[in-house]
Amino acid sequence: MSQVEDLHDTGNGADAPGASMEFRILGPLEVLAPNGGIDLGAPRQRIVLASLVLQANRVVSFGHLVEAIYGDNAPPTSRVQIQICVSALRRLLAGHGHPDAIQTYPTGYRLRVEAGNLDLHQYEALIAEARQARDARRLTDAGRGYRTALGKWRGPALRDVESAAIRAIAHGLDERRLAATEECIEVDLGLGRHREVIPELTELTMAYPLRERLRGLLMIALHRSERQADALDTYRDARRTLIDELGLEPGDWLRRLEHGILTGDPTLAQPSTPAPPVVTGQPAEAEPAPRLLPTDISDFTGRDDEVRLIEEQLTGGGPQRTAVPVVVLTGGPGTGKSALAVHVAHRLRDRFPDGQLFVDLHGRRTERVSAAEALQRFLRALGVPPGAIPDGVDERAEVFRDRIAHRRLLIVLDDAAGESQVVSLLPGDCRSAVIVTSRSPLAAIPGATNAPVGPLPPQHAVALLRHIVGPDRVDREPGYVLDLARLCGHLPLALRVAGARLASRPHWYVADLVDRLADERRRLDELAHAGICVRSSLTFAYESLCGDARRLLRLLVLVSRSWVSPWVGAALLDVAPDRAQDVLDKLSDAQFLETTQEPGGYARYRLHELVRVFARERLAAEESPAERHAALERYLDAVLTLLAAVERGNRRVSRRPRGAAPIRQFSDQTADRIVTPVEQWYELEHHMVLAAVRQAAQAGLVGTSVELAAAVGRATEALPYADHVREAHRIALSAARRAGDQCGEAAVLYASATLSMAQLRTADAVRELLRAMELSGEVDDVHGCAEG
């Protein structure tokens, strides 16, 4: 399948792959068909399939697939290589009766997997049932459920997939398996199976020597098997290992357990409940309950739906929950993601009584906070002495997960750049919960709920200004308040800056600030107050983009229409359309662009209002007049090229129509694919085409404006756009007359006469033809003007 065919394949077949296709990731990656396992091919195909399976029934973006395969070293052909892998996987699955398993979307791909056909889903359902039985004290049912669930594992998750991004996710799955194994053994001990679990615990403690809970469970099992000396040896070995490896003494629970064995605590001789054993005879020391949240915002306004969603995701699920609940708040600069995260965290403090952790990861700055540094801060807050914190990030993550096991903490990770900053900071126990804010969706975190945070609705923007400025001033100028909110793009950061300026200047009217902001050249200067600056927020995000993304962001303001398609980016950057879409997706992931999907699967992108103002500043500062002019010419030439393709599509001819400009942007084949199907494409883009005619005229490119107007007429002969064509002719004719371009004026009049004849407006056609002939005679170029 060619890359364009791949991009337009929407998988409109059956609703889901057949029930006989089973996917396995709890061990080596496997796909089982009725006749046995499927050979999944080359390593890249396995990485792509693993990424899709991990996010089964969800769209996985091209950006995440690129990161999974190439990391930070993606070649220019990465998107094409991914399309090749997906096409190969489609053929492979189609050969086993599942041609529609993988669907294509404008932003990526989605693997459809029916319920029960993924071993991870089977495992999570069984674990949920086992935990329900454990909490209801039905220990026999719980033990059977845990063992059935753990039997789904065939080794470390996705152990044969060579990808750093996949390995990070798989490590989290392995951690969840280990936590469930501990719970299972606790249930076994509660059933009196202490002798049976000793071999398993011995093997586990050798594999995970720093896991204190496993050591403690082995001590209990040995003690109940009348092997007190071995139990105490296990403690001494654990203490020696922890001191040698981490410089840490064993935790309180392990020390109390040793004391109970030495003193013959009778409670240890009895089968325990599935809850963590508590040794009597020595009072438990209170563990630190860190409270690291920043101050909540007193005038927090709106976001009721978002708040409700976050709270439901973090606190719902009950005993059925098997994984740590993670909510990722995504949004552009100034949308208030951090304020929302902190506000919800304060609302939920009572639901997480063991503490709240917070760290700003500075994901969009040059000096980011690494996962190792964040873990160091967390461990200190949890009471670990600085000298006892290990050096490596993996070791710190192990100590962190062990310290918070069976505790209920809320962790807020603010401004994450990507999954690699987050994965090591996730707890292993589902009693805790995590809120992440990021410009990117972080879709590779398994089970994470993505909650987009956009501009405020107008009524909430006005309410926020009312809180800051005061109700009297807002009610006195309601129309100007709406204008102020619009000029701020309804962004909380900009609204707060504008409100603070008004609050500090009680003698100003709202209309005064509206007048200042109306001038785009001054708007970002005006949106700054007391160290808070909208431009700075945008600059931090802008500087974190790659070079192509920064340049395309600047050049997009050259186009007069709000919504643009990938072909526009291709013309502005002078690259292939698929490369342009990669760059547009990067801007979308960084929340500089809004994204929508039009009927027919067309992806469209739009700059936010304040981002457009910022991009215009960067365009003036970083692109020379010659570079700006060249980019605009490439864009206008692309419109001409595509109009020629529309004409070919309507006339069903292969020749290039007379009068069209030489191709510089797209080959005929590429242009034909972009505009197919013709009627649907032109319906989507006809406003863009008309705007291009006007833009060429305004830029003084009279010849281009005339060419575009004539091309619009030829391209739409079989389409119902007569009024649209008339407007294109009017714009080009006015431009030609202003410039004194008689040849251009004649060319437009010839085109207009053709339309008049088609509409049976004979008198108009005769008048236009006579004037065109008169002008052509004056310039002595009858054929040239007519063909123009």
TrEMBL record:
Keyword Zinc (UniProt): no
OmpR/PhoB-type domain location: 11-113
Alphabetical list of CDD domains matching this protein: BTAD, NK, trans_reg_C
DNA-binding region as annotated in the record: 11-113
Keyword terms: DNA-binding, Transcription, Transcription regulation
Keyword Transcription: yes
Domain of life: Bacteria
InterPro entries: AfsR-DnrI-RedD_regulator (IPR051677), BTAD (IPR005158), NB-ARC (IPR002182), OmpR/PhoB-type_DNA-bd (IPR001867), P-loop_NTPase (IPR027417), Sig_transdc_resp-reg_C-effctor (IPR016032), TPR-like_helical_dom_sf (IPR011990), WH-like_DNA-bd_sf (IPR036388)
SMART domains in UniProt: BTAD (SM01043), Trans_reg_C (SM00862)
Coiled-coil features, chain-numbered ranges: none
Family: Belongs to the AfsR/DnrI/RedD regulatory family.
Protein name: SARP family transcriptional regulator
Chain positions covered by the region annotation Disordered: 265-298
Transmembrane segments: none
